[in-house]
Amino acid sequence: MEIITLTRENLEQEHICCAISNNRDCQVVSKKAWLNERLPEGLMFKKCDVRGKCFIEYIPAENAWAPIQADGYMYIDCLWVSGKFKGQGYSNLLLEECINDSKAKNKNGLVILSSPKKLAFLSDPKYLAYKGFRVADTANPYFELMYLPFGEGHEIPKFRPCAKDARTNDTGFVLYYTSQCPFTAKYVPVVEAIAKKRGVQFRAEHFDTCLKAQSSPVPFTTYSLFYNGGFVTHEILSDKKFIKLLNDMGL
């Protein structure tokens, strides 16, 4: 199986797995802009030569858009192998590619965001534990920072204090998000429009710099929704799911 590494030279021609429609689609435009800006910072996007979601994306932890302290490590933004590719060894292949590349770059190990049980948009803790990852730190309400050290004696990664409690001082809905996931380009405007139509207080806070993301009140900066200061969900909500949420909350 060939593994393709995205570069600035092939970025326009290659599909990006999680959004495979044409280059004019807002999701593709957003994601490719994100990749183009991050590649000089050491971001790597490697995908199997298949049509679908089968890729790994990682970046030096110092440049990660996440509130972590993990100097010398490599942070995995996303390891996604869709169901139709399960059981074919692609997850192992991609992870080994990341491990070998990170070791060649003299990294201390890998870090990745997970949870005690498998949740959407978070890496599977059972698979990570099977591959040797350990829990380095935890944050409310269910986030775990897992790490795979390449040797002994390195400092254990941890969450920044700002992200430990998943609380804010805001009123109404506040959505924190980045452009790391292409789905936010499509669905953030969708939930904004629904909230406006319902007359519900709603504000979207786009983390457009690494520093802002590293100061996030929650570990998952891709998409995290709060209401009256309390954490609601990290799942990227479609129109139907957001409407159901509002109905369930009586809003």
Description:
This protein is of the alpha+beta class and 251 residues long. 26% of the residues lie in helices and 26% in strands. It is built from six helices and 13 strands. The protein has helices at residues 26-38, 90-104, 125-130, 183-198, 210-214, 239-248; strands at residues 3-5, 44-48, 54-60, 68-69, 73-81, 109-114, 134-139, 143-149, 158-159, 173-177, 202-206, 223-227, 230-233. The strands form three sheets. Strands 1-2-3-5-6-8-7 form a seven-stranded mixed beta sheet. A hairpin with a 5-residue loop joins strand 2 and strand 3 (54-60). The protein is globular, with a radius of gyration of 18 Å. The mean pLDDT is 93.
The span between the termini is 50 Å
How many E-type strands?
13
**Which range does the strand content fall in?**
25-35%
Percent helix, as a range, is 25-40%
Distinct helical segment count: 6
Structural class: alpha+beta
> How would you sum up the global shape?
globular
Order of helices and strands: EHEEEEHEHEEEEHEHEEH
Integer average pLDDT:
93
Widest sheet: strand ordering: 1-2-3-5-6-8-7
List keywords for this structure.
single chain, seven-stranded mixed beta sheet, 251 residues, alpha+beta, four-stranded mixed beta sheet
Outline of the structure:
With 251 residues, the protein is of the alpha+beta class. It contains 6 helices and 13 strands. Strand 2 and strand 3 form a beta hairpin.
